[in-house]
Amino acid sequence: xxxxxxxxxxxxxxxxxxxALNQRGSQDFQYAPKCPIYxxxxxxxxxxxxxxxxxxxxxxxxxxxxxxxxxxxxRATIRDAMEHFLRYQPTKISKSRIKRLxxxxxxxxxxxxxxxxxxxxxxxxxxxxxxxVTKRDAEAWLERIGERDEADTAFGTEE
Length: 159
What we know:
Blueprint: E1 29-31, E2 38-41, E3 46-49, E4 56-59, H1 61-69, H2 72-86, E5 98-100, E6 104-106, E7 109-113, E8 116-122, E9 126-134, H3 135-145, E10 147-148
Parallel strand pairs: 4-9
Antiparallel strand pairs: 1-2, 2-3, 5-7, 6-10, 7-8, 8-9
């Protein structure tokens, strides 16, 4: 159409971003370098933060030791999984990946990464990784370190 500005292409982010419309209702916008994070409108300052709240991931001393003891390829897989699953939605329960541990006050959650289990707690702004153990050692670690919730009747069951 004459007199309208063509919409810039967003490339690989096209499906993941929504348009931020400025007050004039035009579709002029500026593309930020980290495309999944921000889309800023030109004109009156309007920003639409498409990312959820970013959590800080903190490894406990035991988790650091566990992490360093792993082979490099497993470390890379676990680092990527923690970044992907724990950075923005650490409490989002899934069928097999993230489980809320019922019957325990600490740890609150478990992340499954291949044959490894990452046990962690979540506060308002941080994810504290307590341990990174193999599937075989997970039950023993929970019995040894896990703090049970006396009020919960389903001790140690995962939902």
